[in-house]
Design brief:
Low-confidence stretches: none
Helix content: 40-55%
Strand order of the largest sheet: 1-2-10-7-8-9
CATH topology of one domain: Rossmann fold
Radius of gyration: 20 Å
Order of helices and strands: HHHEHEHEHEHEHEHEHEHHHEHHE
Strand content: 5-15%
CATH architecture of one domain: 3-Layer(aba) Sandwich
Shape: globular
Number of helices: 15
Distance between the termini: 41 Å
Length: 408
């Protein structure tokens, strides 16, 4: 039995959740389609709002997002990459959830839109500042959603942040704080400045469940969509490979798939394999410390109260997949739980820099999807696992293409 709770990163379903699979795409906005599975919806109804009240909040905010990003929220495709599957000899087939066509070009906007809905329901003052630590897709998504919600956002970025990103953040009205390491400091200076702003009264508006558990609520819409698509096409994939930086993407997705199974939407769900670059693999270290202990369940229980005993910051992260270079995997407890003790046992994978670069090229050569090295890192993990005989060529695999290719 899963003993994780919201304090340790497992969001769970709100009371009286309901899920009806619809095979038509009459309204494919996931925050409309899956609203009765969201904690923000539960909060709204608890506060006396009607279903229509919630829909009005979602649609008004989505319309504002569309005006900024030229696209609103809708179901993103799950596609069979036949040519790519053949190119690497994956006979079971590779399915890809294509998030490059989502708002701001990645899955990150799902997390932030979920948070923005909650702020509207709670009637948080527009004068209350928001903040995030990011130098890529999360920062861009946060700036789009904050602008749509007419809220002030400070983005904490490293000294090496790309000018193209900073320009886009400025265009969206975000305030930018360049974070230099101060003498005697340890840890990510962007996170340190982020937490300083929280102490001053700002609200966390990012994609780390450890900082704001409700970011998982919006992120779960990705896993809900995958579950619907698997049911729609009667697919039973063996494995889900998810690239991991901070861990919220993998955590949100696997929690939603677990919910789908518990509610009878899926009879089976794929096993989770997380993927990190070998140049930054803090999750693998934590996983192995727990898996190799004399009593793994007790070790995981201990890790809830003493996480730094198991999750050690990675020194000098390095990879072309810059979006997964978090020195700590923040949302790691649900991932280790699922891979070790869930119904479908998985495990962490490491991708060399050669495999990361190869995966990006293979997607470019054999699909019409423009994805970054971060976005294709799940495929890099598959390539590595096939070489090590960790994944069978007959396995059916899902990967997440989560970031459009651009200059940052």
């Amino acid at each position: 039995m899963n003993f994780l709770d919201q304090n340790s990163g497992w969001l769970g379903l709100p009371p009286e959740s309901s899920w009806e699979i619809k095979n038509d795409l009459s309204d494919s906005n996931p925050f409309v389609e899956y609203r009765k599975l969201l904690w923000s919806y539960h909060l709204a109804t608890t506060m006396g709002m009607s279903d229509q009240d919630f829909l009005t909040i979602v649609r008004n905010l989505d319309e504002a997002v569309s005006e900024i990003a030229a696209i609103g929220f809708q179901e993103t495709p799950l596609v069979l990459l036949t040519e790519l599957s053949e190119a690497i000899g994956q006979n079971g087939g590779i399915w890809a959830k294509n998030e490059t066509v989502n708002v701001s070009g990645s899955h990150k906007a799902r997390h932030l839109f979920g948070l923005a809905i909650r702020l509207e329901i709670e009637e948080v003052s527009k004068n209350k500042p928001l903040t995030i630590a990011s130098c890529g897709n999360a920062a861009l998504a946060a700036s789009v959603i904050a602008k749509a919600a007419k809220r002030t956002l400070t983005v904490n970025v490293p000294t090496w942040a790309e000018t193209s990103l900073l320009d886009e953040l400025s265009d969206n009205g975000a305030q930018i704080q360049i974070c230099e390491r101060k003498s005697g400091e340890s840890g990510d200076p962007c996170m340190l400045r982020f937490r300083e702003l929280l102490e001053e009264g700002a609200l966390p508006f990012g994609c780390q469940g450890t900082e704001n558990i409700w970011t998982i609520d919006g992120g779960k819409t990705l896993g809900f969509e995958i579950s619907t698509q698997l049911s729609r096409y009667d697919l039973k994939p063996d494995r889900l490979l998810v690239q991991v930086g901070g861990g919220a993407l993998a955590s949100s997705t696997i929690q939603a798939l677990t919910d789908a199974k518990s509610l009878g939407i899926l009879k089976n769900r794929p096993a989770l394999n997380t993927v990190q670059a070998t140049g930054c693999s803090p999750l693998s270290i934590a996983f192995n410390r727990i898996a190799n202990s004399d009593k793994p369940l007790e070790a995981l229980s201990e890790a809830i109260s003493m996480p730094l005993e198991y999750m050690e910051p990675w020194e000098n992260p390095s990879s072309a997949a810059t979006g997964i270079l978090d020195d700590i995997t923040y949302d790691w407890l649900p991932l280790v739980w699922d891979m070790l003790f869930g119904d479908d046992i998985g495990g962490p994978l490491g991708a060399s820099e050669e495999n990361i670069l190869l995966a990006k090229k293979l997607v470019a050569d054999h699909t019409d999807i423009s994805a970054s090295a971060t976005g294709t890192a799940g495929l890099a993990g598959l390539i590595a696992a096939k070489k090590d005989d960790c994944i069978n060529s007959d396995d059916s695999v899902i990967i997440l293409l989560t970031g459009v290719d651009r200059d940052f």
